[in-house]
Amino acid sequence: MIQVTDTISIDENEIHEDFILASGPGGQNVNKVATAVQLRFDVLNSPSLPPEVRERLIRLAGSRMTKDGVLIITARRFRTQEGNREDALVRLIELVRRAMEKPKPRRRTTPKPAAKKRRLEEKRQRGATKRMRKPVSKADE
């Protein structure tokens, strides 16, 4: 079990890891050894996540989420498989923790009367400035 928070823990069987060739650090090893890890976590079918956390996680994941509801995290920062496995797991845990936080509800506000008055006065000033730039017509002379 991977402990995310005191209330949420993810079973290791829910996480699938594939090792792929990685670009970046590794020297000649980069073409021979699959050190990058692609972590897959089925968010939609996971019994570990409460429904509201699942919805927020899907929204937070963005393009990392497939159409089938599988979250894919690719880690290739380190030269070793173990380093990249740990990195991918840490990123998954961090994403789930961020999804745990309830967003603060937005409170609608209205502009103050003084701000409205100021805005309208600035519009009048701007209009007057633009009117002054017009060429003088024959009727106005």
UniProtKB/TrEMBL annotation:
Domain (Prokaryotic-type class I peptide chain release factors) ranges: 7-133
| Biased composition annotated in UniProt, kind: Basic residues | 104-118, 126-141
Q: Which Pfam families match?
A: RF-1 (PF00472)
The record ties this protein, via PANTHER family, to: PEPTIDYL-TRNA HYDROLASE ARFB
Q: Which UniProt keywords apply?
A: Hydrolase
| Species whose genome carries this gene | Desulforhabdus amnigena
* The protein's name in its UniProt record: Aminoacyl-tRNA hydrolase
Q: Name one GO molecular function term.
A: peptidyl-tRNA hydrolase activity
What is the top-level taxon of the source organism?
Answer: Bacteria
Tell me which positions the record assigns to the signal sequence: none
Key word DNA repair present in the record? no
Q: Which GO terms describe its biological process?
A: rescue of stalled ribosome
Region called Disordered, residue ranges:
99-141
